[in-house]
Amino acid sequence: MASRTLYELVLAAASLHADRTAVTFCGGSGASDGSVSLLYRDLIQLSEELSRVLVKHCSPSSLIVTNGLVQQFQASLMEYITMEICVELPKFRVTLMQIESRPVAKGTDQVRAQTVDVPGYKGLAYVLHTSGTTGAPKTISAGDVVFLASPLTFDPSVVDIFLALSSGAQLLIVPMVMKKMPNRLARLLFKDHRTTVLQVTPTLLMRFGPRILQQDVLSSSSSVRVLALGGEACPPPALLSSWRHEDNKTCIYNIYGVTEVSCWACCYKIPESLLLSINPPSSVPLGAPLMETVVEVRDEHGCIVSEGEGQVFIGGEDRVCLLDGEDTAVPGTKRATGDWVTVKDNQLYYLGRRDRIIKRNGKRLNLDSLQQLILGLPQVQACAVGLYEGLRLLAFVVSSAAGDQMAASAFPSGSAQPDADVTSLILKQLSLLLPSHSVPDALVLVPELSLTPHGKVDMEALMRTYSRQRGLRFSQAGDLKETLLTGWQEALGLPGDVSIDEQSNFLFAGGDSLKALHLCEDILSSMGVSSSNLLEIILDGTFSDVLHHLARLVPPEESSTSIAKSKKRPASPPTGIIGKRAHKSTELEEEEKPGFKVVRRASEVMEVNTRKADRTETLQVFGGKDLSRAANVSLSLSWSSDTGRCVDASPAIVLRDSQRSDVPKAVVLIGSHSHRVQALDLVSGNLLWERVLGDRIEASAAVSRCGSLVVVGCYDGGVYFLCSDSGETRWLFKTGNAVKSSPAVDPVSGLVVVGSHDGHVYALNPQLQLCVWKHHCGGGAVFSSPHLLATHRRLYAASLGGQLLCLDLDSGHVVWSYCRDTPFFSSPNSSCGHVVIGSVDGSICCLRDTGELLWQFLTEGPVFSSPCFVPEQQTLLCGSHDGRLYCLNCADGSLVWTFQTTGKVYSTPCVFDGFAAGQKGVLVGVASTDGTIWILDVRDGQIVTSHTLPGEVFSSPVVWGNVLVIGCRNDYVYGLNLKSEPKDV
Q: Would the pTM count as exceeding 0.70?
């Protein structure tokens, strides 16, 4: 008769392999050092003896046994029991069960003794009292050596035990303390006993370090035939591949499951092609369900997910778990695992535990995904990410130091220069790869990750280590200035030997609002004082300002800091990070800051701190010679820049007052479908810097009020804040869909307002790196760019759902709305109490600033172009897909003139002073989609000159001086010169 129960499987194997070793307990580092073995015949004999003792002297349901008896059990693995070590009891509780092969039940309550009576389930395989998280048989033979990696309180131990003993293989057991000695354990497993089957957690495996993993575990001559990784997220394929010799034959499995449904539920054999791939995926699938196991993914509403994110549910007719007092379970019951996955192409990819997906700075952050990303860095051997006191984001890292030496310090300090270098390098990489809310507040180098008895990361122990080291560091800080310096460095993730400029601002030195809050709490806690405005000073002031404020909070005798000395700036530039001052307290200081001007499409101009004599609202008109049309005007190519893909974005030109010779006076900023943002010299076209973003760029760039940030939207849903000098990412804000809208900047508050295809308009504070408000625009994507009227604190935004909204700029509340049945691709513009926008139905609509329709002008094609005003003439200009540029009277919408181009007019016209082109008055530049740039006299629409580019044009021209800049669909950005010569007489 075929074997039915687990015990009968072991008996069958013992009958075939009675003289083979069944179990080896090795207490030392060598095969002959403290090793004790049992043959299969000895195992069965001891098991039967112990069974008779227990049945004779104990209740059939539960009993208490002595330490000696349990030690005998550990050696003999008898028929009826499995046990729990209870830390509160000096003895062990053992619950008896008849072991059968069908359903598997496990108990998780912690009473000292209980009777297990399960009506309807007489075929229980085992009862296991466990702290948390059995399985798919692999092809195991009598020649295998299976390592018992898990303690008996961790359910994978059941898999190891019966996998070995039902196959006639050898089960290898070592003391728990050996698992804390990676080098000795490696010798024992791979040299002395030639282990062939290894089922471990990734954390336990990574404790061996890259050298042992490469030379022993996954070498070309490795004894390991099967490596099964479970209990935690599987390491990324690139990391596994880095450990594996190209001739290694080990089969690597990703196994997944939960305690509640009998340990393992899914299994995925990682193919060699994946490990050898040049561009492997970032994660490994969970694989297919095991036999008689049902796996489902459900969303938050309980609906089955076939593509996308959801929670894993596991169950089946014959896989049953009874929890916390349950005595029955409905066959087919599926247990919620608390694990979230992504379903893609019929494969499940692990995201993390639900309680490991948190909100930080209002944005979702998956701690497990962050941990996997850090683990993929070349400097990282092992990593664990967690929250300290529920707020501070910490990354504990075992560095991949040269020679496979572990880091000697558990906390970066000035005395460990190599550690400081590693910390700085890792944090720098993370700041480039991640949005600011995902970058750890502190990176803690540790010699190894603490483990629980089950081989998983012991996060509580790591947090205790951090708390001790942090307290020690603050206690050694000394005087007030040292205390502030220590907190400042820690908040910014800087090594202890990096100097801080006393005039640096926390935000400009790399901080954000969350880091500022941590610094505020740390300082007040360490000093034992309170202050309601310290956070504001940290955000707006300098290091010196904060130090002065703190000095006023403590009695003079308690502070040994010389405030007079702190005012003195260093004689030479500091070697550390030099921040910029974010806030000036006097008007004189404000005017001393370098001014700048930003010119964008539709002749929009934003000026900050420019000399009053140079200031204008929208347009500069110079009184040049009255050349009128008595000159030949030409538009010729000056320079071009290849971006790699089509350029539909419109340029922004930044003009600076800087007196420095190494700072360009005029810079062009523009994005491309190649994912690139380029900064070009306006005069020469030379590339100053280039930055590759996450996806295509169609939106025009803007510049923050402080002038140090370039703001641009991207198809990946991000709004990128880049350093204007280098292009490095300073902040990335993620919306819910592509951002094709061009940002608008409030010159008063500094808010950056931008629309997204997720249907919202967002108001972002780049200084605090947070979203101040967002508003849903009533349906449809927000493609057009918002227009703000700073003096009236009003914002105008339009959507593809046909909504034109007037919002309060400071709160996002709706002031009024206007609705049409057709989408708005055109961006709104305003002047003199009028708000104008084009519509896909061919209309150019003008509304009062109170929301009433004043007039509308009907063109003969859809209007995608945005209106541009000519304030001196009380007229506006707007193009249409009928190929015409229209000049309309602002008061009543009557036609002043029209100009027929040779293509459709998608772009927005640009008005500019004609002096540089030898013309008195104002000119208008506009592009048609066939690639022609037209320069017209704004008074009557007469053509002045034109130039045709070798590609379609959807970009809008921007003019400064005698240079016109525009993008083209042939992948280039062009700078064209306007020149004038007297006509021949």
A: no
